[in-house]
Amino acid sequence: MRGLARSPLFLRVFLLMLICVAVIQLMNVLLLIAIQTPTSRIYTVGEIADVAKHGAGQNEAYAVTHAARIDKTAWNPRGERLELALATALGVPAEDVDFSFPAPLLQRARTYDRTGIPVPRAPANAQAARDAIVIGRFTVSVRQRDGWLIIRSDHGFEPWRWFVLLWLVASAAAVAPFAWALAHRLTKPIGAFAAAAERLGRDPRTAPIAIEGPAEIAEAASAFNRMQARLNRYVDDRATIVGAVAHDLRTPLMRLGLRLEAAPAPLRRACEGDIRDMEAMVAATLSYVRDTNALLERRPLDLRSLAETVIDDLSDRGAAVSLAPGEPVVIDGNSAGL
Predict the structure, then answer these.
(1) For the residues of 93-133, what is the DSSP string, one character each?
(2) Out of 1.10.357.10, 1.10.287.130, 3.30.420.40, 3.50.50.60, which CATH number does the structure's domain 203-295 have?
(3) What is the mean pLDDT of each run of 10 residues along the chain (338 residues)?
(4) pTM score > 0.90 for this model?
């Protein structure tokens, strides 16, 4: 288990992708086994002729519309035979009938060359014409006095299409857990590094990142921890140098104060004020160095409460100060340092 936990991130992502592909392919194989072969609906020219004469009525297998003009369909042998059959069944010239078949989705309509193909014969009688069979989708246009009557076969959304659609939804649901695991695997280390960078910005001495997980993440965490250690050493070295310089400045300041004892009073008072200012700056510098090297505990603090305390102290001393009302301002900090 430990070896699996330290396995490369690339290998984990690659295996998850392979599992996703395998699940999809398995669902496709099951679809080929489970689905039934789609069958085209069968119509007769007699049914189409009745719709042309009397309308579709309650027959939901046809959709009927009207148009002032139509574009004649390119010649095809199947449509020509059915045009003759429907014209015979209706008792109209063949020129008043147009039979077309829509091309399948994402396919171009087929074109035919009539060279060498004999003209088909019309059915012997109207009954023979009515018995002619039409398979699949079609569009029929019949000329009338006020334009063209257009009859389309209305298959709706066949059951097998619903089955395929539901199967696709089930396939997506089957792959979704693996996709979520892959996204979580990729984003979790990024979130961990972002949180670590935020903690480092707030507190340079925060705990280092735990070195765990895949090899790439462990290596990146180790590099981040080394960077944090180098930054802390750099800050400590600078603070140590500044503290040493500030501490060494106290000796010449003391000697300068002793030498001023023999100086005239006005000059001595002016120089003593400057010396006190320099000693205050040295003390502040040493305090900063001590606070920098100390491990201060950070906890949530309300800045508004701190401001209220300061305002109360100033009011007790007679200062004309006030604090405007507002919402609490909570930060992470050290109360003694503030």
Answers:
(1) -GGGEEEE-PPPTT-PPP----TTPPPPPPPSSHHHHHT-E
(2) 1.10.287.130
(3) 59 82 85 75 89 77 88 86 91 90 76 80 88 89 91 75 83 84 79 82 78 76 86 80 74 74 73 76 73 63 76 76 76 63
(4) no
